[in-house]
Amino acid sequence: RSSEAQMRSLLETAPAVVWSASVEGVLTSVYGRADQIYHGSVAGLVGPNIFDVASQIPEFLAAAQTALAGEPTIVRIRRPNLALECRLNPMIGPDGAVTGLTGVVIDTRESEAAAVERAETEARVRAVFDETSLGMVLLDSEGHCLESNAAFQALLGYTQEELHRLTVAEYTHP
């Protein structure tokens, strides 16, 4: 009982929705943060047909059909203010027939926003590195040039390829 309560607590607080449905598509269990993704009551999701619940999301409907055909699938859904990763798996009975579906839906808005912010930051750093009049070089732990900017190459009179073959000791004063 304690492990069951722990599992229920984990499922109900995870930043995802874990669900199962019969082979007809009737939702038999829903755990997790469905209120944040579906904007409705989790309790109200048990019993309806998943094809009705997701009727406005054709990518999900196609993925559910694929899973009902016996093939696990992943679908990413993007809409304004919505980014989901849905993993759907068939439940297989002892006779090998599909008896239902299980799924995990993860809200990926935060991670996608962080990836965009990281890319923008990297682009700014790259622009500074490439466009500054100050010579800049990135070295590995052995003193080999990993990358240098045009100002550094002009200062020393070497190309990127030539610098890559040299160590810092070969082009600096002792």
Question: Overview of this structure, please?
Answer:
The structure is a single chain. By secondary structure, this protein is an alpha+beta fold. Helices cover 39% and strands 28% of the residues. The protein is built from seven helices and seven strands; from the N terminus they run H-E-E-H-H-H-E-E-E-H-E-E-H-H. It has helices spanning 2-13, 34-38, 50-53, 58-68, 109-131, 150-156, 160-165; strands at residues 16-22, 27-32, 73-79, 82-92, 98-107, 137-139, 145-148. The chain has a five-stranded antiparallel beta sheet, with helices on both faces. The protein has a two-stranded antiparallel ribbon with strand order 6-7. The protein is elongated, with a radius of gyration of 26 Å. The model has no long low-confidence stretch (mean pLDDT 86).
Please give the order of strands in the largest beta sheet.
2-1-5-4-3
Treating each run of at least 4 consecutive H or I residues as one helix, how many helices? 7
The sequence of SSEs as H and E is HEEHHHEEEHEEHH
Structural class by sheet pairing and helices: alpha+beta
Approximate helicity band: 25-40%
In round numbers, the mean pLDDT is: 86
Beta-strand content: 25-35%
Rough shape?
Answer: elongated
Which value, in Å, is the CA radius of gyration?
26 Å
Mind describing the biggest β-sheet?
5 strands, antiparallel
Ranges with pLDDT <50 over ≥5 residues?
Answer: none
Number-wise, the strands total: 7
